[in-house]
Amino acid sequence: MPDNRSSAPAVSPPADAEQPAAPTATAEPPVVAASASLNEERVSVASQRQLIWWRFRKHKLAMAGGVAVLLFYLVAVFADFLATSDPQAGKGERSLVPPQAIHLFDEGTFSPHVYRLRSERDPVSLQRIYTPDPSQKVPVTLFAQNCRCMPRLAAPGRPPAGSE
């Protein structure tokens, strides 16, 4: 079978043309070489823990996750201080109450409060229905005195937040 490739003659540069110089190894400036060797030495003598920490610090998402886990641990440690009600005073009728919005202003003045809830039973489904009563406002205060929590950092007998 005949070869269909074109057979062009090989072209060589003229004999008097200058050949490009072969790439020579350029010497690094002594400062860069010294800092590179310091970094290599630092890595070679670092412990496994240091190597892991250096790699972990470069990863931004891992750092954000680490901060979140640290916050979870802090909340767990200070749970008694952060509790808004007495953990020993459980009432079954309030266990299914949905969360309420805190209203920060009352008639133009700063007065954080929630509306008292009225409980009714739906005659068809027999479920409890909670409706807010805007005529009865329950103030929300810091360091409320009605709770006998186990405070460690707050004033005796006062959680950091609650209603009077």
Continuous helix count: 4
Topology order in helix (H) and strand (E) letters? HHHHEEEE
The tally of beta strands, per DSSP, is 4
* Order of neighbouring strands in the sheet with most strands: 1-2-3-4
Radius of gyration: 37 Å
Overall tally of structural domains? 2
Give the low-pLDDT segments. 149-154
Structural class: alpha+beta
Describe the main β-sheet briefly: 4 strands, antiparallel
Strand content: 15-25%
Percent helix, as a range, is 25-40%
> What global shape is seen?
elongated
- Report how far apart the termini are: 102 Å
Q: Mean pLDDT across all residues, rounded?
A: 75
Report what the structure shows:
The termini are far apart. The longest helix is centred in the middle third of the chain and has 18 residues, at about 60-75. This protein has a four-stranded antiparallel beta sheet with strand order 1-2-3-4, with no helix packed on it. It folds into two domains: about 30-75, no CATH class; about 80-164, no CATH class. A hairpin with a 6-residue loop joins strand 2 and strand 3 (about 130-140). The chain is of the alpha+beta class. It has four helices and four strands, in the order H-H-H-H-E-E-E-E.
Structure keywords:
4 strands; alpha+beta; 164 residues
Describe the structure concisely.
The protein is of the alpha+beta class and 164 residues long. It is built from 4 helices and 4 strands. The chain has helices at residues 30-45, 48-58, 60-77, 79-82, and strands at residues 103-106, 109-121, 128-142, 161-163.
